[in-house]
Design goal:
Blueprint: E1 2-4, E2 9-11, E3 14-21, H1 25-35, E4 42-43, E5 46-50, H2 54-59, E6 63-64, H3 67-77
Parallel strand pairs: 1-6
Antiparallel strand pairs: 1-3, 2-3, 3-5, 4-5
């Protein structure tokens, strides 16, 4: 399953969401490609997507979850890659 949190993270004059998979990075990359998200948006274990792509992510099937759920889901799936590693 692919998940996205509401756009709330400010950077470069925009608000951003985190897009993750609790299945595999392959699923995440395939979904991001369908969404039109560039590979440079991938950051260790998630994609940063701008608020303009949020509705499309939901339309494509991403489940909206609160931001605090993103890390919990990644940990539960064994896909969390913290910065220090």
């Amino acid at each position: 399953m692919v998940y996205v949190d509401p756009p709330a993270w400010p950077a470069r004059g925009r608000l951003w969401s985190h897009l993750i998979s609790d299945v595999s990075y392959a699923e995440l990359h395939a979904f991001a490609e369908m969404l039109g998200a560039p590979r440079r948006g991938f950051d260790r274990d998630h994609y940063d997507i701008p608020s303009e792509r949020f509705a499309a992510a939901v339309w494509l099937g991403a489940q909206v979850v609160p931001s605090r759920e993103i890390v919990r889901l990644l940990h539960g799936a064994g896909l969390r890659r913290p910065k220090h590693r």
